[in-house]
Amino acid sequence: LHARYVLNLLHETRKHLKQLPNISHVSTCYSEEVTVCGDLHGQLDDLFLIFYKNGLPSPSKSYVFNGDFVDRGKQSLEILIILFTFLLIYPKEVHLNRGNHEDHMVNLRYGFTKEVMQKYKVHGKKILKMIQNVF
């Protein structure tokens, strides 16, 4: 995805998240399912498997993602792009909780910073700065 679109997505995500409280409450009735996921750690195949087994986020399919979206795996940025896009499309059905890997120092150690810089050589620093603002 071109850097301009990534930056635009990050800007819109940040704008949306700033409107939300720090703590969000998610409740459902007995007839409604919520899929709770955590620790994707850059494993895009895991996210695809979750969507394959449970369906894509939609007005009838809610998700809570409990952090640690990035680091370790090789497709952390793709996971963020997908999760942030679904968050903007379905803001009442997709909930993102920050994990300890959504931190600049942890990203330096476990590979996310390097991943972004390899994928976006020219705009990598700007994208990383915006991602940290979103986190």
TrEMBL record:
Cofactor names: Mn(2+)
Record-linked InterPro entries: Calcineurin-like_PHP, Metallo-depent_PP-like, PPP_phosphatase, Ser/Thr-sp_prot-phosphatase
UniProt keyword annotations, A-Z: Hydrolase, Manganese, Metal-binding
UniProt EC number: 3.1.3.16
Reaction equations catalysed: O-phospho-L-threonyl-[protein] + H2O = L-threonyl-[protein] + phosphate
GO molecular function terms attached to this record: Hsp90 protein binding; metal ion binding; protein serine/threonine phosphatase activity
Gene Ontology terms describing biological process: negative regulation of MAPK cascade
Keyword Metal-binding: yes
The Serine/threonine specific protein phosphatases domain, residue ranges: 97-102
The UniProt record lists the keyword Manganese: yes
Family as reported in the entry's similarity comment: Belongs to the PPP phosphatase family.
Protein name, per record: Serine/threonine-protein phosphatase
Organism: Chloroceryle aenea (American pygmy kingfisher)
